[in-house]
Amino acid sequence: MSIDLFSVYTVEHLLDNFLHYLIVERGLSKNTIDAYGHGLNRFLCHLKKRGVQEISRVAKLDVRSFLLSLKRQGLSTKTVVRNLVAIRTFFRFLGREGIVEANPAEEIESPRIAKTLPEILSLREVEQLLEQPDLRTPRGIRDRAMLELLYATGMRVSELTRLPLNQINLEGGYVLVFGKGSKERIVPLGSEAMKWVALYLRTVRGKLGNECPLLFLNRSGRGMSRQQFWKNIKSYGRSAGIRKRITPHLLRHSFASHLLERGADLRSVQMMLGHADISTTQIYTHVTGERLKKIHQRYHPRG
Question: Which residues of 1-13 are buried (b: 16+ CB within 10 A; e: fewer)?
Fold first, then answer.
């Protein structure tokens, strides 16, 4: 089928249909869909520069050229792989719709992503971080509750900032989390997190507003953005004198590693983190193994 690749209507129509398919049939998260859309728009611009006019004429060489251009821009291997997956999935969709016969990205091998061990906080560093919010202020109580909940559950920052008030159960001691792809999981809270969330609900939450259904609100009574919480935790990390790069995900890594260090089984940690594949969780076993090696080297007489 001959389709003018650069007719505005055609491009928007094809991309809209594809992204709608990802939402409805694949159940992918908003962040993933945004990344796919951004990558495909970038790919279409690249094709235009190469003079490719019809979508059926996109070749393997065009895809390789695009991936090479991403590398030359200094983008990470992970970003390059994500763009390749987006292109491959897009052409599979177009094939299913009868728009193209061949998938130019199907046989292109993905670059290998080097497995880097995630950095984690020590128990002492976690305690120092949690102690930073000023408990004399409503903001400090809210932030302490957010940090405690993040470390207690290993939630993603997007899950924390978008957590509805009615999904936390202090009596039962658990929180209901909707993660990537709207997958549901139940995560225990722990006594410290329950204590601080209860204090926040009792003394602060009502003063911030009652119209927004989310648990954690900003001064305007609306849900806090991921970016704002990121800035807050970064500031608290500096105040605590922690030299590591403080991010919300660092507490998620620390949550998983600390559980495994104390004997939690991998499958349970996988369920609490909301990982679809246990191989994603297994990287934390390498983290604990590396730490054990360092302890052995430091304290064993022949280490």
Answer: eebebeeeeebee
- Please tell me the distance from the alpha carbon of residue 288 to that of residue 282, in angstroms, as a whole number: 10
Half-sphere exposure for 94 (CA within 13 Å, toward CB): 28
Nearest to 86, CA basis, from 135, 133, 34, 122: 34
Residues taking part in catalysis: 156, 180, 249, 252, 275, 284
**Structure-derived torsion over alpha carbons of residues 103, 104, 107, 109, reported in degrees to the nearest 10:** -130
The closest alpha carbon to 198, from 161, 149, 159, belongs to: 149
Residue count of the chain: 303
Domains and CATH numbers, the chain: 8-96 (1.10.150.130), 123-299 (1.10.443.10)
Give the CA radius of gyration of the chain.
23
With beta carbons less than 8 A apart as the criterion, state whether 221 and 211 touch. yes
Global pTM reads 0.64
Q: What is the pLDDT of residues 165-212, one digit of tens each?
A: 999 999 999 999 987 766 789 999 989 999 999 999 999 999 998 889
The answer for residues whose C-beta is within 8 angstroms of residue 198's C-beta and 6 or more apart is: 170
